[in-house]
Structures are given as structure tokens and as C-alpha cells.
Amino acid sequence: MLDRTKAPEVRPFGQLVLPDEELVTLSNGLVLHTLFGGDQDVIRLDIIAEGGPSDCTNPCIATFAAELLREGNKSSDSETIADIIDFNGAWLNSSASGHYTTLQLSSLTSKLDILAPLVTECFTSPTFPEKAFGIIKAKGVARQKLNLSRVSFLANADNRRMMAGYNHPESHVPSIDEIESISEESLIDFHKQICDAGHTHAYLCGRFSPCHVERLCRLLEQIPLTSSSSPIKIIPFAPQAPGCSTIKKAGSLQSAVVMSLPAISRSHPDYNALRMAVTALGGYFGSRLMMNIREDKGYTYGISAALLGAREGGYISISAQCDNRYTRALIDEVRSELRRMADEPLSQEELRKLKFNVASDLASTLDSPMTVMDYYELRRSVGIPDDYFYARKTTVDTLTPERVCDLARKYLDPEQLRISIAGDI
């Protein structure tokens, strides 16, 4: 009988093996990625096109265009599409983020041949119906009004400007007027740019047969090849000088604090080790920031730190919310913890917890064909090196407290912080 008074034994992970995807380049230039696996007869199909909010003068153009992909095509209106998806027990979603627009179908394997033509038609021939466009635009306006009232949104937006540069596409926060002025023509023009087989990848994972792949390839080959140039525009981040910026939000009961440090890209040899050092700083519940600022001082319910890697560059972000009275004390404690990372090596217990946490996160990539395919999609979208998965595992096995201190001295300089505060302060 299970003795619930004893904690389960913690064991190290064995060998972690990432299943290989298979790639097929179709006659129109589209690349199909497939990954067979899983115990259930389900599949997921993602069509991911180059071009997203980061490539538009107004990021809402890409967001609205993506949402409207499933609101009608040349053969079916929105109600018909919804009925077909519901009747077949499937799920269809569309979204845009960064430099990509995604149309995603999850369904039973037996329904793939029925639903794949619908999905490809939604991608190639959306009609952008006026009524649906009006509803989505109204929702976008309401959502942005709500965002602009939140201290967390204001602090994050301000800090992006400090890290990326004030004129960088990632820094642009559309005004209400900009959102309301978006026209149907701008959505159509954006779709024309992204509906290009030469800059589109499709991902099929789950349990499927060679016949499913063959029929899917014939459908995907109907996507037109329209341009030799990609709509993606990679503009390197241009961090502003270190300093502190304050956004006054009268009546706010809390302040949002976002602090950032310029960092290295995912291709840098220090990246994986620095990612673990940042995790030790504030990447999980037992991290130093959490233990000090939440558990000991009680300044905040939660504080986090993460190393973020994009094609434009990398940076370290630390964020929290707190009572307005504790804002300056919280920032002082973060500075103190950054210095302590450089001066006080991780204890053996800290290192053990850190390694298990990171290894668990790495192992979760292997949970299912869908999580594995998520990794392959992410690898392409943010420019992850081919050996990234195994390099992370090697770093987990070899990281030492001394190495963490060296990285902290090199990359976690509190004098380089860019700090954004939003609140009634």
C-alpha cells in the first residue's frame, strides 16, 4: 500500500531523445514537416506563414487578419465553417504573433481528410466579411482600452521601448484611433503577402498514415507561389541607456515593475548556461528572487525573471507587481540579488533543485508528438540552433556554482538595468 507520509523518491532523468521530424518540400516550395507518434488516433495540423504583427506598421492588422481566416472563405461562411468543425469534434484556431501567422487544426485522425480541405481554403481564400471584421475591430478597441488601463501592460510596453528602441516595430503600441482606422483593404493586402507557398511551412503530428500525408500534400500544393521575397523584417534591438522610467497611473492600488538587461542571442555559446543562471535568479518558485522578495520580505505575490531570445536579439526581463509603498524597496532587493548571484555561489541544494527544474522542463518537450512539434516550430520561428535540445541537456549535466557566478558577473550587472514603473507613485 502506498505510504503517503513519505515523499516520492526523486530520480535523475535518463537519456532524453528528441524524435526526428521528416521534411518534404512540395512542388510549390512549401515545406511539410511530419512527426508520427502518440497512443491516440488524433492529429494536429498547423499552417504557419511568414509575416506577423512585427512586420506591420500597425500590429493589429496582422492580428485581425489572422482572426478572420476562420470567419469565411470562398466556399463557406463562418457559420458553415463552425458547424463543420463542431460536427466533426475538431478545433480550429488562428493567430498571429511575432513574425508568423498560424492556422491550427486539432482533430481525430479519421476526420483529417474531411477537414484539411476546409483548413487550406481558409488559408488561401478568406473573404474577410464586413460584419465579422466590424465585431473583431470593436473587440480590438475594447481590449486595447482595457490594456491601457493596466499598470502591467503600461510597464511592459515602456520597457520594450527601452530594450528594443523607441522606433522598433516591437515597441509600437497602437492607439485607439489607429485601430479604428484599420481598413478591410489593409487586411487583404497583408494576406496577399503571407499567402505564399515559398514562405509557408505546414506541420502534421500525431497518428496518421502515408495516405494521409499524400492527400495532404496534394492539398498544400494548391497554395500559390507568389513572391521570392519574405515579408519578414528583422530589425536588431537597439537598447536605450540604463535608467528608470515612471508612468503615473492615478488611483492604481499596485505598481508594476519591469526591469531588463541586454543579453545574448540563442546562438551564443553562453546562452544555455545563462538561461539556467537566470532561472536560478527568478525562473521558478524556489528561485532567489522568490525566496527573498516574496517569501522573506512579502513585497509581492510573485516575481519572475526570464532570458528571452528572439531573432532581433536577446534580453533578460524581471517583472513583478507590488503595493505602491514597496516599489523602491523591491527594486533595491532585485539589485541586491543580482549582486549576490555574482558574489555568492549557489549552494549544492540550490544547484540540485535548479537542475531538476530545468531537466523537467526539457523532458516536458517529449510529452507528446504535439509538444515535440511545438519545439520544432519554435526552433524555426526564433532561430534556435539545430543542437539546442541536446546542448541544454549537456548544460544541465555540467553547470557548476562557479560557472553561474562567472555568468552573473558578465551579464547580470545591476548598473545596466532598464527599469519601467507604472503605478500611483
List keywords for this structure.
425 residues; alpha+beta; Cytochrome Bc1 Complex, Chain A, domain 1; 2 domains; 6-stranded mixed sheet
How would you describe the overall organization of this protein?
It contains 15 helices and 11 strands. The protein is of the alpha+beta class. The chain has 2 domains: 22-220, Cytochrome Bc1 Complex, Chain A, domain 1; 243-423, 2-Layer Sandwich (Cytochrome Bc1 Complex, Chain A, domain 1), CATH 3.30.830. The longest helix is centred in the N-terminal third of the chain and has 18 residues, at 130-147. The mean pLDDT is 95.
- Compute the number of helices: 15
For the largest beta-sheet, the strand count, sense and barrel status come to: 6 strands, mixed
Order of helices and strands: EEEHHEEHHHHHEHEEHHEEHHHHHE
Residue share in helix = 40-55%
Radius of gyration of CA atoms, rounded to a whole number: 24 Å
List segments where confidence is low: pLDDT < 50 over at least 5 consecutive residues.
none
N- and C-termini, Cα separation = 57 Å
Strand content: 15-25%
Quick synopsis:
The chain has 425 residues and is an alpha+beta fold. 43% of the residues lie in helices and 20% in strands. It has 2 domains: 22-220, Cytochrome Bc1 Complex, Chain A, domain 1; 243-423, 2-Layer Sandwich (Cytochrome Bc1 Complex, Chain A, domain 1), CATH 3.30.830.
Summarize the SSE layout with pairings:
Layout lengths: L21 E4 L5 E6 L5 E9 L8 H10 L9 H10 L3 E7 L2 E9 L3 H13 L5 H18 L3 H14 L11 H5 L3 H11 L5 E7 L3 H11 L22 E6 L5 E10 L7 H12 L5 H9 L6 E8 L2 E11 L3 H17 L4 H17 L4 H14 L5 H11 L2 H11 L6 E6 L2
Helix pairs in contact: 1-4, 1-7, 3-8, 9-15, 10-11, 11-15, 12-14
